[in-house]
Amino acid sequence: RLLGELVWIDNGKGAKPTQGKVWLNYHSEEQFFKGDEIIGLVRLNRIKGFKNFYVPDPSLKFSKAGIYFSASQVRGVPVYKVGAYQKKFSPALYKYRDVVSEELEKSGAGSSYLLSAMLLGERGKIPDQVWRQFQATNSSHILVVSGLHLGLVSGFYFLLFLGFLRVQPWLLKRIDPYPIAGFLSIIPTTFYALISGFRIPTFRAWIMVLTLLFAIVLRKYRSLVNALGLAGIIILILDPSSLFDASFQLSFLAVLVLIWYFPGFWRIAGGEKLKQELYLTKLEKKGIWAWMRMLWLKIAIYFYGIFIATILIQLFLAPLNAYYFSQISLLGPFANLIIIPLCGLWVCPVGFLGLWFVAFLPEFAEWLFNLAGIGAQIMEQVVGFLASFETFNFLIRPPTGLELLGWFLTLFSISEFIYNITLFREKKTKPNWNKTLIFIWSGLLLISGLVLIFSGYQDVKKSREEIGQVQVNLLDVGLGQSLVIELDKKYVLLDGGGRLGRINLGEAVVSKFLLTRGIKRLEAVILSHPEQDHSAGLEYILTRFKVEELWLTEKTNPQTQTLLELAQQKGVKVRWINTKQPLITINRAKFEILHPAQEGIEKLTVNDSSAVIKMTYGEFSFLFPGDISARIEKKLVQQYGNKLKSTVLVASHHGSDSGSSKEFLKAVSPKLILISGGESNLGLPSNKALERMREYSPIIIRTDQKGAVKLSVDHDQLQVKTFSGKTFILDRI
Questions:
Q1: Residues 297 and 197 both lie in one domain
Q2: What is the number of domains present in the chain?
Q3: Over 76-102, what HEC string results?
């Protein structure tokens, strides 16, 4: 997968020059480098936004970076390089990177996928389950090459160079070793940034670390906040879209908190007393006991410092973690207390050394990678153990913009108040006007923050006070399907959407919708059929939400198996559904399975094996036919006839011409047809299918045009509301 610039497009009518960034997914083994010109036969799609109530659009990260298209190579047709990059440095670097990757694979190092992520930035090799465990313990930042890793590299080599210079008496008399060590550290730091792929987060972290190193070179030791600010300005000038990027916000805020607050809170938490005790111990008479006491104090100071720093970072990053990832973990400080020393003192330093020796001492590099792999295995086991305590990892509703600002104002005001009151007590200063102003300022910030939090919550509370005891929400998940059915405080999820590149829409859209609605427990999760555009999102839902039952048809494949394994791990009851299933009632809503039959399902295609479910509540009925074709529709008409008649029909297979036959539409006679789809090169929804739908239904709503659709049942009326703002009422059938 690579990011490139479109130069021209030929859609069969001649080449036309064009401009724009595009993500290209290709299958060939050939390695392409920055500056190469390539040509290929691809399916080109515009990256469409997702328009859902209460949920930020996950595709905005692409548009803010100027990326509006994605392209997929047509299988069997190669992608050709028509113009090679003239400079030799980049290909040589990538070749060396490939050698390192191969050496890691050959070494047989434990948890080699973790080493690949930390040393080469190859996060895609990490199994989903392992990634989720690191996320659950707020330690996934270890696996993404960013400020922490570049900070470890620069710190490791800075101390290495500084140690070497300080044992050279003739040098110490002539130069200050700190600026020299800082300058020399730039070389391995830059090499590591390049070898790890120099992706956008790595580039930003490199700018930040280099700015801080130059502050040391220029002896601006007390101007780290200014250096960080300068780094931020440089990054935003080079890439303005970084301002809206989660990784930039998280890493920048973490460094700012450490620089601004750590020294004060270290003193408040008693860290200075430990350092004073260490200093006094050094002055004592030398001996084995004094040496052991000094060693113990140094270890205590190191780990206590990590613990205080982690608590500060977790506290200030909690609002952003809630906003972007919908979770807060109390395990973070304890996980990082173990993981960061393992990474900083063992895995990364040993792995960094291995990077240098691959070219000329591969056997020694292999030994180093194996040694680092042992540490990586311990990291994985520790994280897996802590992640098993699910009680301490909370799903949380993403805060609104007002709430987010309110939380930061509240945290800042409380921190300033605690810091200043402790400072005044230590100095034993008498009350004065400056002190009073500080406390007034902190109080005003606190009140402002609490008001914003309250205002934001009121907006959310108001959105939950919807009319109607039953709501059917068709979410906008692009070319996929996901429906959230609300049945008077009991909830059913039908399908979970698919993926947008690496973005799981179950996490990015469905879960955020559920949490904003205050839903953490689902009575049933239903998979209509095991295709990725319907099933991929359910993996996240089963992992993170409390699910009572999982409904599946007996048409199974690897995607079904994944869901079954998750259900078994989480203790979710599995219900196999077919036409022999008796009527299922959930809070007066009746679910009837019209298809598939138990017999002969193995002969059906995956689409034709879709569960066809009719839900009836009072005088209103909803028909969900999955992705069935006209062949199955014909059988349903013959078998059920007028029983298919429904108020609302969700069009089969996203409005494909393979379904929505005239006979079926006539039997259903819906007052409203909903089409779940997105822009694609598959021609969905089909114009022919749309023509047939218009004959039998007065209203057709497409999610690719109107966004998400909310249907609310209120006594004898059905209110229909679209994300685009259209609202109307349907009378009972």
A1: yes
A2: 4
A3: CCCCEEEECCCCCHHHHHHHHHHHHHH
